[in-house]
Amino acid sequence: MGAVSYLDRYSLLRSRDSEFARDRLFAAYGADRFEAHDRAFGMQANLARLSSIGLAFCAYDGAASLSFPESQILRQFFSIQGEAGFRTNGHGQSIGAWSPMIRGNARLDLDFAPGYRQLVLRMDAAALERLAKSLVGDDSSTKLRFLDGKADSAMMAHVRQDVFRFAEELERFGQDYAPIAIAELERALMVRILLAHPHSFTDRLHRAPPGANRTVVDLVESYVAAHWDEPLDLEKIAEIAKVSVRTVFREFSDAGRGSPGQFARRIRLDRAAELLRRPDEQTSVMAVAFKCGFQNLGRFASEYRRAVGELPSETLKNARRKQ
């Protein structure tokens, strides 16, 4: 197998046996057709299953074809090296830096040349629809439908960066990844996907949100403070405030409070300081950072010092000295 690889912590298969690869792809990915076209076959597949999305790495050391039936899964492919193409709804094209959003309402056929490598973003269509509706404050029966128009290339460049960074973070931390951090990264990626692609809510998503009042900020801050150790749930926040997610963000901005995410970060830094000031034998800077939703220890230390006035290690050391 080639040296380029992602998500090795989440190995699904690594084999030169095409029959074994077929069985695994059918069972884990939901494929219903697989054909290896070269005798010198080799395949690697890794899959990280998250809450509403899945992130997969696939490598083909021999030409192969793969098909999927209709499903509720939305897919987007991000080529790393080599050549590949797809066909769905009677149309086909090659896969470049990113593919169009591929809907699950039609059969999908894929062809891979030898040496092809890619990351695949798999998204639950219902979860993405709920997020889109919460962003615009829609409680109607309108469905999220992705349109055939071209995606915003500048936004998609950021999406590609986010996908690869997410894969690297998952590979680095694996099961040690803070649940708060992983849930919020997942949600942020889904929001970028909605902003990048034309769909049935695009016009409303880019329209100025309706006004509300200052009590919205107070309601949201009270909720976030009470649930600081949980992922920031945009849909729940909008439901509590009885406005759209975009209106929540605008009210925070107009009030000079930044954003719900920034407020949550401040609360979590305060909680981190409390935990470090009252340590037990198991308390460590890393454990506190992860508990409070900070995955990058360097960034946590920097933000903590700006907020508290000293490094987290100094807070912990001073607290232990007083015990």
UniProtKB/TrEMBL annotation:
ATP-binding keyword on record: no
Coiled-coil blocks: none
Origin superkingdom: Bacteria
PROSITE patterns documented for this protein: HTH_ARAC_FAMILY_1, HTH_ARAC_FAMILY_2
Keyword tags: DNA-binding, Transcription, Transcription regulation
SUPFAM superfamilies the UniProt entry points to: Homeodomain-like (SSF46689)
GO molecular function terms listed in the Swiss-Prot or TrEMBL record: DNA-binding transcription factor activity; sequence-specific DNA binding
Domain HTH araC/xylS-type residues, every copy: 218-318
InterPro entries from the UniProt entry: AraC-bd_2, AraC_XylS_family_regulators, Homeodomain-like_sf, HTH_AraC, HTH_AraC-typ_CS
KW Transcription regulation (keyword) present: yes
Name of the molecule in the record: AraC family transcriptional regulator
Organism: Bradyrhizobium amphicarpaeae
